[in-house]
Amino acid sequence: MDYKAIAQQTAQEVLGYSQDTAGWKVVKTSKKITVSSKASKKFNGNIYRVEGIIPQSTSKLSELLYLPEHRVTWDKSLKVFNVVHRIDSDTFICHAITQSFAMGSISPRDFIDLVHIKQYEGNRVIISSNSVDFPEYPPSSNYIRGYNHPCGYVCSPLQENPAYSKLVMFVQTELRGKLSPSIIEAAMPSNLVSVILNAKDGIKVLRNTSGCACHPKSHSSFLKKK
């Protein structure tokens, strides 16, 4: 499997989603976070777009979103988030296990995702992910194996205040199992708002405990140490 090619294609798709302004319907607004959706072209479900402003620079925010030692401290939707294989300094495979949500009506899933970090002009960073087959981590009987079609975070400096970032998250997750689409559509918007709120809380915690000692290129050194 050509993981590098898949990673590049996924990044381009997420970039395309960020430039696509047609057909989105706002399904939830809460605490200055907006969730929109429309029918996915990848599977029989929705793609969600979640937008919010984060009080952190783009380089530091992007690391909060994917470095495992940060991610597990703030993302309450996850039980596990581990890098299991590296392809290069910007591309790696992660194993994630989610918590149950929607008051337990949606049980935990596990995912094997190819994650890629790419910087664009204007200090914009896209962290894209797409589920892949990885023989070392086959599906187990403990969890339903979900599938993430091209997803990702787009982090951009806020024009009026570059110390803040605009975060746009795209999610099109096939949870699989025997779930009614109506349950997913009812639960997903609130769950996605919580992810952004948890990221904001994570920023505060890191500031208070360590000054958020992140550096713009530290993802490269992190992966090389693995």
UniProtKB/TrEMBL annotation:
Keyword Amino-acid biosynthesis: no
InterPro entries linked to this entry: StARD5/6, START-like_dom_sf, START_lipid-bd_dom
Pfam family, one: START
Keywords: Lipid transport, Lipid-binding, Transport
Gene3D superfamilies cross-referenced by the UniProt entry: 3.30.530.20
GO biological process: lipid transport
Cited SUPFAM superfamilies: Bet v1-like
Domain named START: residues: 20-194
Record-annotated membrane-spanning stretches: none
Annotated protein name in UniProt: StAR-related lipid transfer protein 6
Top-level taxonomy: Eukaryota, Metazoa, Chordata, Craniata, Vertebrata
